[in-house]
Amino acid sequence: MKASTYFLIITLFFFGCSTQPKVLFDSLPNTYLMESDFESLPNFTDEKYTEILENFKNNCRSKKAKKLYKNLCEKVESIDNEKSFLTDFFTPYLITTKEDKREGLLTGYYEPELSASLKRHDKYQHPLYETPKDLIVVDLSSIYPALKNYRLRGKVVNNRLIPYDTRAQSKKKPVNAEVICYCDSEIDKFFLEIQGSGRVRLDNNSTIYVGYDNQNGHRYRAIGRYLVKIGVLTLKEVSLQSIRKWLINNPKRVDEVLNYNKSLVYFKQRKQAATGALGLELTPKRSVAVDRRYIPLGSMLYLQSNIYNEEINKIVFAQDTGGAIKGSVRADLFLGTGTDALAVAGKLKSELKLWILLPKNKKEKNK
Fold first, then answer.
1. Residue 16 resides in a domain
2. In the predicted model, is pLDDT for residue 6 greater than 80?
3. How far is the C-alpha of 33 from the C-alpha of 29, rounded, in Å?
4. C-alpha angle 108/200/345, rounded to 5°?
5. Tell me, what CATH number does 360's domain have?
C-alpha cells in the first residue's frame, strides 16, 4: 500500500458508529471524518435520485473521480434502483475538524458575462491574459510528498527564481503573454478572476468561453476585507453587489482597491461553458468548489445549508476550487449564469454542514 496513492482510504477497518473524527485519507492528513448513515442526512429521501445518478456518471468522466470511486463508475451504468445504488454502495461521513467543529461556510459563485473585443480600441482597454511564457511553476512533491498540493510560482532573473509580478506590477509593464481579448471593464474582469470562468460577448457578435489556467503565485486577498478596513463598508454590508457598486462610484480608487489583491489569474479559451478544475462543465446547484487540501476533487458530497432562509439539503459534486475557498467544512456552490445567479451568489453566506459519500468496503457490506 503506497502512501503516495492520491485517494487511498486507509481506515477500511472502522465500522459502527464513530464517536471521534478520524483521518481516512493518508494524502489528506488534516481531513477529519465521522462515520454517519443516510438516515442522518437531512431530507435525503426528498432527493432527485435519477438526476443525481446522471451527475454521478458525468462526474466519473474525470480521472480523479474514477480513482476515488473505482468500479462504482462502471456499476452505475447498469443499476435498476437509483436510491439503492447510493444506500447500498456508499457510506456518508460527516466532514469535521480535528477539534470536532462541524459547521462551516457556504458561499456561491456564478458564470459572469463580459463585453470585450479581440482588438484594443475605444472602451476595450483591459487585457485578459493567457498564462505568461516566463511563468515558472515548481512542483516539489517528488522530493517532498507532504507538499503535494502546493506549487511555487515565479520567474527566473539572473539565474534566480523570484516572485512573479503582482497585479499592480503587471499593469505598469508589458506581460510576456498572449492576450485573449480586451475587456471594457477592469471591474468585470476582476470579478471574472474571482469566479474562475465566464463567457465573453465580443463586439463582432460572437461568444467565447474562458476559464482559469494559472495564477501569478501571490496569495489571494479579499478586497471586501480591505473596504471594511478603510471604513467604507461594514462587514455586514460586504457582498459582490456592494463591492461592485462602490468601485463603480469611486473610479479613481479602483486600482488602489483591486491592487490590494496581489494575485492575478490567467485564462485560456475553452470549448464549453463554465468549467471547473476537473475539466467538466459545471452543473448549477450540483457543482461546488472546495479546498482540495481537505476534500478530494471528484468526490460526491451532501450539504445542509440555506439560501435566503430556505433550507437546502442536497447531493453535490466537488468539481472546482477557488483561491478564497479555505478549510474543510467549506464550499462554494455554483449557481449558473446571468443576473439571477449573480443576485443569489453575490450575497450567499450561510452556515454549512457537509458530508462526503465514500464507497463501502466489502467487509462492511457483508456485515
1. no
2. no
3. 11
4. 10
5. 2.40.40.10
